[in-house]
Specification:
heterotrimer, A alpha/beta (272), B alpha+beta (373), C mainly alpha (222), A: 272 residues, five-stranded mixed sheet, 10 strands, C: 222 residues, 10 helices
């Protein structure tokens, strides 16, 4: 009898050990869901050109209203893709109108949203770079002909509207084909700015909002590109289907005077 | 009543061919002897349940351990088998004591520690109890393995090449230990070896294995007097092996008088008491045959015998003559020339001359009437 | 210093180990002691994540579990949120990416045990479960430890899949390695530097602890 009982016990314990890993996964899934979703501030997705401006506005929103949102920055294209794949954002502040419109037609937004800012592009050259910056890109053209452009930074035109605008500017001045092989392409306009301000490139076409920040502006020289050289960077924001009341408040706050002032201070134009 | 015998029958054509059938009773030592690769270890593993041949029947006493006909298979951990592996297979992360205690799961928890100590004591390893295998010598590891096998209180003790990694003096000691176990333990003992010295010293029965087939099987004395096992001659040189009783001790002359089925022999020996049974081996090359009674020799031993068979093997120079001496059988190796000169033929009566110093004596191993291979 | 990111990284490492180690021990041992048809294929499949670019894994996870896939929608209906862009999604990706880092060392650990020792354990009367717990696992322990460390280190360092599947959500999917990238893009070199130093320290300390531990656990292999 004894050995039979003992063997039965072992069989059971072996079965249990087989299922215990499954049970473990289940416990994890359930337990973490509580931890991760319950006490987090709602998350807002924003185009990378807003890096400084929106961080500032979110802080001010917290001071003024006593509510908090977390901001995740990325390229408008990547964020759109993530939202379509189910990323849990409550609101999306894009760098253009096309990406948020895609989400609206996919039925993922509350409504068509509003344009909250119009961005500008600058040509930037870090201190020590041989690149002379000017609004007509003559300096870049000269340096390119002289073979002095080793690397030039823009954002990825496929996913970043500022990259698309940079491409349009380069094409307008007939530089695109010559400079193509020298381009370093950032995933976001912030990364392109990173490349062009740290001396890893002779310069780059980046967002005006990113070089207004004293810590960045100190690193080199820049010149504003005329708005007419590319399609306007009309930046639209939309409330997404899963927006919480806090996010709705923030959406409204973005259209208020405090946010508009901050946007202007950061180099944007704001719509009337 | 419990039948103490181990009976084994194994058959398969591959991957390791096997064709053997034998029994081994309590107190007997069956030596499975053969060249490496002949399937010796596979037989032991089959008995322990670690290998499953395609056709097998293995019974220990009243229990059936394996029977492929009835699809009976008792898993290895439920077989009362003591198995000493060739490389010892000690658990490297446990101490000597821990190794032995592992085999005491059938005993109540409270007893295990003291029993394990007792087992180590038995193999004279108590001082090494807390050492791990890597800190033990080859012989010490061997003894831990033996203690571990015995701790299981096995119904069958299986030894796989137990002497292969022990030096000469350790080997002697160990052989004596195993011989002692045979007498006290009273279980069937199966020993695998490729060294015939082990067989001669320890075995009561021998199973000779070649390519998984039993080429010869039986009590050692019967087997050793067969002239037709040429590969055996190659391995050790032929000889006769039998048990004899010491009937007198001539301490002053350094000789003992041995009585066996074929008569009486004088052999040099010390420290053997009268009435003990000894194992005697006489190499075939050391026997001289004569057609007429010799005189004026230094020899003590002249026996009368009759030729049973003359075995000429073309692969060898010598000729093996099988002789009936009393009710024993002896083998003599002579040249072909001698056969012709003396005109030796079956039935012929001859004088069998044996030099005393060529007689090898050992404390006897078991013997029994079991012919059941 | 982004403490939330550190917490996410550590939880991700610990969670991956907690899920993968029991499975790895079971499966690694199976591969070590059993012979079966198709074993070669199974071993190759287990190894695939080593040579597979993390982005490929990320792609398939998004395609399979994204909000637009039936499976993703079913998951969301069941759990209330999508698998990608959640900690669970990261954990899932991390578990898959780490399968070879867990299975292989454990398999080698079990393979290093002589078959005679396993057989001896059976002949000593130990049941299969006792053999596993008392003989095999203690002897394969260095392999298990290696698996745990490799997994932990690998999880801390994982970047591509985390960014792709996780989406850089603070407190949920923003691990330390992603936070470094994030801070670099925000021109916050100081924070990035502190976090990089933290990761470096954790890695070195982990490896040192492992070396010391494995010496103590298994001096006869040293």
């Amino acid at each position: 009898m004894r050995p039979i009982l003992r063997d039965a016990a072992f069989t059971i314990s072996r079965r249990l050990s087989k299922y215990s890993s499954l049970a473990l996964i289940a416990v994890w899934l359930l337990g973490l869901q509580d931890v991760s979703l319950a006490q987090r501030a709602p998350t807002v997705a924003a185009a990378a050109n807003l890096n400084f401006a929106l961080t500032e506005i979110a802080k001010q929103f917290e001071r003024d209203r006593g509510m908090r949102v977390d901001v995740v920055f990325g390229s408008s294209g990547t964020l759109t893709r993530q939202i379509r794949d189910g990323a849990p954002f409550g609101m999306f502040l894009a760098a253009d109108e096309e990406f948020p419109n895609q989400l609206t037609s996919a039925g993922l937004t509350r409504d068509a949203g509003v344009v909250y800012a119009i961005g500008r592009l600058v040509i930037f050259a870090p201190t020590g770079s041989p690149l002379m910056v000017d609004e007509r890109l003559d300096g870049l053209s000269r340096l390119l002909r002289a073979g002095g452009v080793t690397r030039f930074a823009i954002a990825n035109p496929d996913v970043a509207p500022y990259g698309r605008a940079a491409e349009a500017v380069l094409r307008k001045h007939g530089l695109w084909d010559a400079i193509r092989s020298r381009l370093v392409v950032g995933d976001t306009i912030a990364q392109a700015a990173q490349f062009s301000t740290t001396g890893n490139a002779v310069g780059g076409l980046i967002a005006y909002s990113l070089v207004k920040e004293p810590g960045v502006a100190d690193r080199g020289r820049y010149a504003l590109i005329p708005e007419t050289d590319h399609a306007p960077l009309r930046q639209r924001m939309v409330l997404l289907k899963r927006a919480t009341p806090v996010v709705e408040q923030f959406y409204a706050y973005m259209q208020g005077a405090a946010a508009r002032t901050a946007l202007i201070r950061n180099g944007y134009q704001v719509p009337q | 009543m419990r039948d103490p015998a181990l009976s084994v029958s194994l058959r398969q054509s591959g991957p390791i061919p096997l064709d053997v059938e034998f029994t081994c009773h309590s107190g007997e030592v069956l030596a499975i002897f053969g060249p490496s690769g002949s399937g010796k270890t596979t037989i032991l593993r089959s008995i322990a349940g670690l290998y499953r041949p395609s056709h097998a029947s293995i019974r220990s006493g009243a229990e059936t351990w394996t029977d492929t006909d009835t699809r009976t298979f008792i898993p290895p951990h439920r077989r009362a088998v003591g198995l000493v592996f060739q490389e010892y297979a000690l658990f490297p992360h446990l101490t000597a004591l821990g190794n032995v205690m592992t085999a005491l799961g059938h005993r109540p928890r409270a007893e295990r520690h003291s029993r394990a100590e007792a087992m180590l004591n038995l193999v004279r390893l108590a001082p090494q109890a807390s050492k791990r295998p890597r800190d033990l010598s080859g012989g010490e590891r061997q003894r831990v393995a033996l203690a571990r096998a015995l701790a299981r209180e096995p119904a069958v003790l299986l030894l796989d090449e137990p002497f292969s990694a022990v030096d000469r003096s350790g080997r002697r000691r160990l052989q004596n230990e195993i011989e002692g176990l045979r007498r006290t333990l009273h279980v069937p003992l199966v020993l695998v070896t490729h060294d015939f010295e082990d067989v001669v010293r320890l075995a009561s029965h021998v199973l000779m294995l070649q390519h998984g087939r039993a080429v010869a099987c039986g009590p050692i004395s019967t087997l050793m007097s067969r002239p037709d096992l040429p590969w055996l001659r190659e391995a050790v040189g032929l000889g006769s092996v039998f048990d004899a009783t010491v009937t007198r001790v001539h301490a002053d002359r350094g000789l003992v008088e041995l009585t066996f089925g074929g008569g009486m022999l004088l052999a040099p020996a010390r420290n053997i008491a009268a009435n003990t049974v000894v194992r005697v081996r006489i190499p075939a090359r050391e026997i001289v045959l004569a057609t007429s009674a010799p005189t004026g020799l230094s020899l003590h031993n002249v026996l009368a015998g009759a030729v049973m068979a003359v075995h000429i093997d073309t692969a060898f120079e010598g000729v093996i003559v099988q002789l009936a001496v009393g009710n024993s059988v002896l083998l003599a190796e002579v040249t072909r020339d001698a056969i012709g000169r003396l005109g030796i033929g079956v039935g012929q009566r001859l004088h069998v001359l044996i030099k005393s110093v060529s007689i090898e004596l050992q404390a006897s191993a078991a013997n029994s009437a079991n012919e059941g291979c | 210093m982004d403490w939330a990111a550190l917490r996410v990284s550590l939880w991700l490492g610990a969670g991956t180990i907690a899920i993968l180690l029991p499975l790895g021990v079971w499966f690694g041992r199976l591969l070590a002691v059993r012979e079966f048809k198709g074993k070669l294929l199974v071993e190759a499949l287990v190894t695939v994540p080593i040579v597979l670019p993390p982005t490929v894994l990320g792609f398939y996870l998004l395609v399979t579990f994204g909000a637009r896939s039936p499976l993703g929608q079913a998951f969301e209906a069941l759990v209330g949120h999508s698998l990608p862009f959640s900690f669970q999604g990261l954990l899932f990706a991390s578990v898959i990416a780490n399968v070879p880092f867990v299975v292989q060392p454990i398999q080698r650990g079990f393979e290093a045990i002589p078959s005679d020792v396993r057989d001896a354990a059976a002949s000593c009367g130990l049941t299969p479960w006792q053999r596993f717990a008392r003989i095999e696992l203690p002897l394969a322990w260095p392999g298990v430890l290696t698996a745990a460390v490799l997994t932990f280190a690998h999880t801390l360092g994982e970047f591509g899949v985390v960014l792709m599947v996780g989406g850089n959500l603070p407190g949920q999917t923003r691990t330390l390695s992603v936070a470094i990238y994030d801070r670099m893009q925000a021109f916050d070199d100081r924070s990035a530097g502190v976090m990089a130093a933290t990761l470096l320290t954790i890695s070195v300390v982990t490896l040192m602890a492992t070396t010391a531990l494995s010496r103590r656990v298994n001096p006869h292999r040293a």
